[in-house]
Write a structure and sequence with these properties.
Elements lengths: L6 E7 L3 E7 L5 E8 L11 E2 L1 H16 L7 E8 L4 E5 L9 E2 L7 H9 L3 H8 L8 H11 L8 E5 H9 L6 E3 H4 L5 E2 L4 E2 L1 H6 L9 E3 L10 H4 L5 E6 H8 L8 E5 L3 E8 L10 E4 L5 E7 L3 H9 L9 H8 L7 E3 L17 E3 L7 H29 L8 E4 L6 H11 L3 E4 L4 H14 L5 H7 L2 E5 L5 H18 L1
Parallel strand pairs: 1-5, 5-13, 9-12, 14-20, 20-21
Antiparallel strand pairs: 1-2, 2-3, 4-7, 6-8, 10-11, 14-15, 15-17, 16-17, 18-19, 21-22
The structure holds adenosine-5'-diphosphate (ADP).
Adenosine-5'-diphosphate binds next to α10 and α11.
Length: 489
């Protein structure tokens, strides 16, 4: 390759696995390797990861995808990661003080409830864009500082998973994070774009233990040459959903992406001004000096898993497509998959799931279809809340919905999503958008791509699904959904 640095290495550290993908200079995936991650459940509602295991897995994945290749060919490393998951380590020894507390962990619930009772949620929301919930890092860090013996006396560092990987890749030279990860800690102020002194005081966090915050497309040092065979610069870092939004080239206000994995995360670009949700969605920093409103659905692909593993009406996830297609109309049948409560915009942790409107002729095909429909209706719930937030801020209208994640392999689901939301659903050729976003950020820093326009031009459509249902019919079906939801609350 004329000695030109022509590849990009993306590390995608997720909740259930750690992966590395090697991309060529055109951002086409060349090789990838994944290692599953052990989930540790020390108590009811608690979830932890072993930080040492995460670092070793990342290193193994990088070495595997580089296998035999000159590491000098790699222009830059990009990192994307599960967000909010938090840990402390000793800066002298480099050893973690405790397992990482994972985003799903609920141990901060009582603390959050107490803070809410003191009326602090509006103030915290205004500063951070977040709701007072144990999901975010602040109460996890507070718990670690309180419960790890002697933690405050030691020379320690706090980090989300990106910081931990950067620290290890640079062998302790760099303690940094990026704006998208910082914006999920509940300690970072969206307006000042800095750690917030008032919140640090509230959660008793010494500023000295926090990482430096850089832009996502920034300089995070270089990896130690002993690790991968060359001092490759780390030039891009973003939390998984923001990386996916970047990989989907959602660069203009109104651009919206929705990722359908186990759960679903939708982010709409709201531009350069800090947005405020009045509909209990979140405001968050994007990787390109813009902001987004974010909404999530707890159960998306998980409903398909449940139909397969618990109800046993399908043998595999892809089988849901043919069955849904064959289903009878089954008017008035709704499946509300509130297995763990209802998320945005209802926020009802006490709600539980139900299938309503059963008649004698409803069989497995109709139930499978109702399950897929539920993911579409929940998406409309999020889009409606986003629309209300955006029109309150006099922002642009929503454009087509860019989709990715495991579920969008299902054509029937994509078409139904267009029909029930009334938006065109655009499925790109590359649906691995998270790692792609990290590679794009790193490639921009390394000069492999010129600018965001260059990246937007690379976004290639696989298929556009256009809404084919009349508005009156769509709204009638949606009213039925709202009624079904009200029955489980
Ligand atoms: P995650 O990253 O959350 O593990 P993925 O993006 O890999 O999720 O997507 C996997 C999810 O997509 C699973 O919940 C699975 O049930 C669902 N899924 C995969 N293929 C299909 C399909 N053809 N139709 C419907 N759902 C599917």
């Amino acid at each position: 390759m004329n000695g030109r640095k022509s590849c990009l290495l993306a590390i995608d550290q997720g909740t259930t696995s750690t992966r590395a993908i090697l991309f060529d200079g055109q951002a086409r995936p060349l090789r990838s390797h994944a290692v599953p991650l052990r989930q540790i459940y020390p108590a009811n509602g608690w979830v932890e990861h072993d930080p040492g295991e995460i670092w070793q897995a990342a290193l193994t994945c990088c070495r595997t995808v580089l296998g035999g290749r000159d590491a000098g060919d790699v222009a830059a490393i990009g990192i994307t990661n599960q967000r909010e998951t938090s840990l402390l380590w000793d800066k002298t020894s480099g050893k973690p003080l405790h397992n990482a507390i994972v985003w799903q962990d609920r141990r901060g619930a009582a603390r959050c409830a107490a803070l809410k009772k003191r009326g602090l949620e509006p103030q915290i929301s205004r500063k951070t864009g977040l709701l007072l919930d144990p999901y975010f890092s602040a109460t996890k860090l507070e718990w670690l500082l309180k419960n790890v013996k002697g933690a405050r006396k030691r020379n320690i560092a706090f980090g989300t998973i990106d910081s931990w990987l950067i620290w290890n890749l640079t062998r302790g030279k760099v303690h940094a994070t990026d704006v998208t990860n910082a914006s999920r800690t509940m300690l970072w102020n969206l307006k000042t774009r800095d750690w917030d002194a008032g919140l640090l005081k509230l959660f008793s966090v010494p500023r000295a233990i926090l990482p430096r915050v850089a832009e996502s497309r920034g300089d995070f040092g270089a990896c130690d040459p002993m690790l991968l065979g060359a001092a490759i610069p780390i030039l891009g870092v973003a939390g998984d959903q923001q990386a996916a939004s970047f990989g989907q080239a959602c660069f203009a206000p109104g651009d919206v992406k929705s990722t359908y994995g186990t759960g679903c995360f939708a982010l709409v670009n709201t531009g350069k001004a800090v947005p405020r949700s009045r509909n209990r969605l979140l405001a968050t920093a994007l990787a390109q000096k813009q902001y987004a409103i974010e909404g999530s659905i707890f159960i998306a692909g998980a409903v398909v898993q449940w139909l397969r593993d618990e109800l046993g009406v399908i043998a595999s996830a892809p089988e849901s497509q043919a069955l849904a297609k064959s289903a009878k109309p089954a008017e008035g049948l709704y499946f509300v998959p509130a297995f763990t409560g209802l998320g945005a915009p209802y926020w009802d942790p006490g709600a539980r799931g139900a299938i309503l409107g059963l008649t004698r002729d409803v069989g497995r095909a109709e139930i499978v279809r109702a399950g897929l429909d539920a993911v579409c209706y929940q998406t409309r719930d999020l889009l409606e809340a986003m629309r209300r937030d955006m029109s309150a801020a006099r922002l642009t209208r929503l454009r087509a919905l860019k989709v990715d994640g495991g579920m969008v392999a299902n054509d029937w689901f994509c078409q139904r999503l267009a029909d029930l939301t009334g938006l065109s659903v655009d499925r790109p050729k590359v649906t691995e958008t998270t790692a792609l976003g990290a590679a794009y950020l790193a490639g921009l820093g390394a000069g492999l791509f010129k600018d965001q326009k260059d990246i937007a031009a690379r976004w290639a459509l696989d298929r556009r699904f256009k809404p084919a249902l009349a508005k009156a019919e769509r709204d009638r079906l949606y009213a039925g959904w709202k009624n079904a939801v009200s029955r489980v609350q």
